[in-house]
Write a structure and sequence with these properties.
Number of domains: 1
Oligomer: single chain
Number of strands: 0
Distance between the termini: 55 Å
Strand content: under 5%
Length: 125
């Protein structure tokens, strides 16, 4: 195997190491949710703003992913109406990453509120 291919496969597996086989639940997604939440907390000083930012980022990513899938395979748009159980599957596919994002948003909120006072004490000294 070529060294470049091996390096790319290693980086891809590290970035997309997923804890659940659903879209939106990977290490890379965790980084995106964490950064969005951290930015929200820094702007508003509210942990719930970070949770909302991470959840909103997750929802936008989910919507874009399934819109692209619907464009590539137009039958997916009609499928939930033909078989209503697909709505249950889609809601599970949304709720798992949404819970993941909200928890990471809460973590980023706590970290964001903890880091700023610590940095402020360093600057005063």
């Amino acid at each position: 195997m070529n060294h470049t291919v091996l390096t790319l496969m290693t980086v891809q597996s590290l970035l997309y190491g997923s804890i659940a086989p659903t879209p939106g639940v990977s290490l890379f997604n965790a980084l995106v949710y964490f950064l969005a939440a951290y930015y929200g907390v820094q702007r508003t000083r509210l942990v719930r703003a970070g949770m909302l930012a991470a959840g909103g980022t997750c929802f936008i990513g989910f919507t874009v992913l399934f819109a692209a899938a619907a464009i590539i395979t137009p039958g997916l748009v009609v499928a939930p109406f033909v078989n209503p159980f697909i709505f249950v599957v889609l809601s599970a596919y949304l709720l798992i990453p949404m819970g993941y994002a909200v928890l990471l948003g809460a973590l980023a909120g706590v970290v964001g509120r903890w880091i700023v006072p610590a940095l402020g004490k360093l600057r005063v000294s």
